[in-house]
Protein 1
Amino acid sequence: MIAKNLRLAPIAMVALPVATLMLAGTLAAQTAASSPQAAIAVRQANYKKMGAAMKTLNDQLKGNAPAKTVILGAAQALAMAAREQPRQFPVGSGPAAGVTTDALPNIWTDRKTFDGQMARMIAESAKLVTVINGGNMDSIRVQAKATGATCAACHRQFRADT
Amino acid sequence: MLSAPEPRFVRIWDAPIRLFHWLLVGLIAFSWWSGEQHEMEWHRLSGYGILALLIFRLYWGFTGGRTARFVQFVRGPRAALHYVRSLGQSDYKTPEGHNPVGGWSVLLLLGALAAMVTAGLFAVDVDGLESGPLANFVSFDLGRLSSGIHGVLFNILLVLMTLHIGAILFYLIGLRHNLIGPMIHGRRRTADNEATASLDASPWKALAGIMAAGLFTYMIAQGFRL
């Protein structure tokens, strides 16, 4: 018994601290995600991804022969990041959070409208992926415009114009 | 009774320079307005107009009328200092064309505008929806940086334009010397004994410059996708 335990000891000596660290890490990540500052960081990173994807898409559509794989990749990145966004606006993550944010306070006072805009963004960006898979370039241009319009409409209402 | 001598006029600004100046004033105002209103289609067109004007001005600085040429008005700091000191003296002597300080003001204004137009060509908005015609050559982050620089340069341009207008008012009120009239009609009242040489502005050279500026601007506006 004793010998067996002794043989296990070296493994336990490595495994235990690793397990503890992993647990601590998970807990830290959970608390971080719920803090307003962390939410601001996450949603800003997501918006940057979406802006970059939109630029890639529009750069391609400006030309005569857009590359389908490129615009599909951009649209997928856009749709994926869009689905992440609604949960990144917890109460208290407005301008009062002490972190620089262009999020206007009316996001939290007019939450229903804001959520409606979010839903529209998610729906239009998802549709964009479908339309690109369809392959009709005219429809793709129309849907890219419609998707962009949801960004602009929401920004006019809920984002500080800097 | 002695009648006053007929006032004599000397031409100091050629027509292309005056047209350049007032079109620039209009387009800067329109660019500001369209930018503030997010009328980006108009804002881009207005920017192309300014770009064409700047290309023409650069060309005209080597081929235009005497007072339009860089060699005539780009002077060293010593000449500028000497000129500033001469302003304090009672009898103000009008230099032909730009004075040595005004020359620097012109270079700064043109430089700021050129930098601003260049930044605009690569700029991207926060949504990745609107962009300059050359933005596809840079990343989203660089495009955003370019957009930021575009905005900062506008504030610098505002300072330079304020100085420009302030100087004109100083000449008008302080030195009783009207600079606005000549920029409109091209002529300045002159003393009898002053030599009046022609400006030598060739309309054919002007036409060639306008066409070259137009073509160049068109190519840039198309993002070189010809």
Note: Chain B touches chain A at residues 124, 126-129, 131, 135-136, 139-141, 143-144, 223, 225 (CB under 8 Å).
Protein 2
Amino acid sequence: MSIQGRNVTLHDMCLRDGMHPKRHQISLDEMRSIGRALDEAGVPLIEVTHGDGLGGRSINYGFPCNSDEEYLKAVVGVVKNAKVSALLLPGIGTVDHLKMARDCGIGTIRVATHCTEADVSEQHIGMGAQMGLDTVGFLMMAHMISPEELLVQAKLMESYGANCIYCTDSAGFMLPADVTARIALLRSELKPGTELGFHGHHNMAMGIANSVAAVEAGANRIDGSVAGLGAGAGNTPLEVFVAVLNRMGAEHGVDLFKIMDVAEDLVVPMMDTPVRIDRDALILGYAGVYSSFLLFAQRAAKKYGISSRDILVEMGKRKTVGGQEDMIEDVALDMARAKG
Amino acid sequence: MSKKIKAAIIGPGNIGTDLLMKARRSEWIEPVWMVGVEPDSPGLARAREMGLKTTSEGVDGLIPTMKADGVQICFDATSAYVHAANSAKVTAQGALMIDLTPAAIGPYCVPPVNLKDHVGKREMNVNMVTCGGQATIPMVYAVSRVQKVAYGEIVATVSSKSVGPGTRKNIDEFTRTTAGAVERVGGAAEGKAIIVINPAEPPLIMRNTIHCLTEEEPDQAAITRSVHEMVAEVQKYVPGYTLKNGPVFDGKRITVWMEVAGLGDFLPRYAGNLDIMTAAALRTAEMFAEEMDAGRLVL
């Protein structure tokens, strides 16, 4: 299907999902310089927060070097055209965090739940919509349920006031046909005015292909991350996706050369280790495991002398969902004991 | 031979019914009334079958004969919205109120940590915090009673099927209330609570991870001993309260991993999060009853 002339809103993740590979240690100066550069490149939406969203500061997910409030104010303060978004996972963050983020000047709130648990987002989506924010319902680990089941949850979020619904491939498990089936059904059944988005992880190298499939099936918002900086093998590399959209003739407003330079000159030099499809990231995608478990599994593997791949496979067998980082050390302890 | 204290349960739903089944086995508590608002509620029908008096007129249906029936303890298993009114009516009749809703009018009660204080102070309304709080605060306290805890964090993971619509509509109440009680009851200077809902089938048994950061280097032997003693204390009323891993020490971080399986009375065994609420509420009532029996507490 041609996407020639279609409008696609690109949403950069490197200052939020990118916090995972950075162990939430991105500095305020880095936030400002990257935020400014993304804005100058024409990226319309930039997400900023702890990797696990507002209130993610914890032993369980990691202590960031600055507060969400400081990060949000820093980036809001340097962008001229772009809007800043924040992520909120009910159960981790609360409406108090949402109010704080609104006061910092965000334009978009994205309320994320596991794909079967949309009904915990009612108060947060409701408040976001009431505040007049661009309010997005973000259904994570969407590979775990059928398109029909996903639709039921999407309709709940729509009914609470979300003006955009995301199909989120948190594990980087989906193949293009999986994306097509989900987005196409949401497009045909949700209100015509409700926008649709796709958030990919590159664990099976499907970030670009899945994002193209999403646009073809009716999504108009796509998440990517400059240089792919994100959990697991990273998100859909934004500069690559811009190049693909250019070739396909879609409209997005981002300057390809400028976004390439942001990737190469600012984001890659900031990486602690290359964000790539190593065997652990591949197993995340292959086994359908939440991408931000990667570094936790690698640390636990080192500490207890076991294989990080085995830990991740076991996390998959236990049907863990986003946020269960605490189970990684638990699994590692069980495995180390079994090993004797 | 102890004289059982008569009790009323307000709210004939899953929680109220599970509580009823546990209370019927109690040496100290005799459930005599079940209070609901729906005439054809299955919970009221079950309570009638078990020989309880029932009303579908809410607390107003209980009050007129409450004193004559000797009811001295009420459990409220309804919702935060109606608890305040229920509590005012019940305590006006001189009965104690044990609050299983998130209303938290009275002080938080986590039995192995502070129940004795409440009994000593003759509190007329005590609140059972949250399921996550009941399951984790004893562990935070097990550390803080050894040495100062600068930060306590709990992660409660519960099965999707065990989380009711009330909790879902106001999940912030869970995180806020639990975090507050980690501080006020658990003894951490700063508290944080996280809840994760997992839809896996078969449903997972409640899991809790408790992290503490101590101010000074942790006394590993003393903390380990304290944790094991506390586990044994909670097991007295929740036999399925199990230490799965830990305590693990990593610098000033102490982590324990717990599993909470229920007794499977009315609620399924995996719903340890609900079981620990009803078990803790009954344990609370029993301790008040023991005090009454000994003549130390006169209502």
Note: The first helix of chain A runs from residue 28 to 40.
